[in-house]
């Protein structure tokens, strides 16, 4: 998007250039400024985290259409190798087809809100949580000390922003819980929640610990778009 610059303007050499605090801080500042200027955006994170809620980001009809796409092809949600724990993430996941016009329209609108070029985006995912299903407290950013990092650093490096689109209201449960922020976000059809996984100095923000709490009644549908420091690739050579 126009105005998005990925360059290092701070001194020092990062321990790993794929987790570069200078780049990550700059990306965070650019997206934060863009969302603060968006009249739809409500600032939820305050001084602890960059987090914004945009209500009515998608219409009810658009959300229904996306739910149907998710339900057509779905399988168990997974975790990165070495981090799996029974019962930790029990939802189902749909991987959107990048060639589908509805998918591209969805991605274009999220990219436009954040201002992040789409080449930095991972494959767009849809998640379905049925009664009793959850995703326990976790961080979206990567830990460079974990074995999976050696692969993920080659795919685009550290995660920057997460954008989560809620596709339906949930009768009971299914909130996104942020214990360090004292915040619980209830699913609201058409609302987009976007947050920076990094602190303003470009290091991982521990205040972004969050969970998808168990659905008590009904079914919860969300779409998640993760962005990386550098252009993302699925297939490594």
TrEMBL record:
SMART domains: P4Hc (SM00702). Residues 120-229 form the Fe2OG dioxygenase domain. Its cofactor is L-ascorbate. The keyword Electron transport does not apply. Keywords: Dioxygenase, Iron, Metal-binding, Oxidoreductase, Vitamin C. It holds the Pfam family 2OG-FeII_Oxy_3. This is 2OG-Fe(II) oxygenase.
């Amino acid at each position: 998007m126009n105005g998005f610059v990925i360059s290092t303007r701070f001194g020092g050499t990062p321990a790993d250039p794929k987790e570069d605090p200078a780049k990550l801080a700059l990306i965070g500042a650019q997206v934060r400024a863009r969302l603060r200027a968006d009249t739809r955006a409500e600032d939820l994170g305050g001084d602890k985290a960059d987090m914004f809620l945009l209500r009515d980001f998608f219409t009810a009809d658009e959300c229904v259409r996306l739910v149907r796409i998710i339900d057509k092809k779905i399988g168990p949600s997974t975790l990165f190798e070495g981090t799996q724990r029974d019962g930790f993430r029990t939802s189902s996941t749909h991987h959107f087809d990048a060639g589908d016009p509805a998918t591209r329209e969805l991605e274009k609108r999220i990219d436009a809100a954040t201002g992040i070029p789409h080449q930095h985006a991972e494959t767009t995912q849809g998640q379905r949580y049925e009664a009793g299903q959850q995703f326990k407290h976790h961080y979206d950013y990567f830990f460079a000390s974990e074995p999976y990092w050696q692969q993920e650093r080659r795919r685009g490096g550290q995660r920057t922003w997460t954008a989560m689109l809620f596709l339906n209201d949930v009768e009971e449960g299914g909130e996104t819980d942020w214990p360090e922020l004292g915040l619980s976000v209830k699913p609201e059809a058409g609302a987009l929640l976007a947050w920076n996984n990094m602190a303003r100095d470009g290091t991982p923000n521990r205040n972004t610990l969050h969970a998808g709490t168990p659905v008590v009644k009904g079914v919860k549908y969300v779409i998640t778009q993760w962005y990386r420091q550098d252009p993302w690739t699925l297939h490594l050579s």
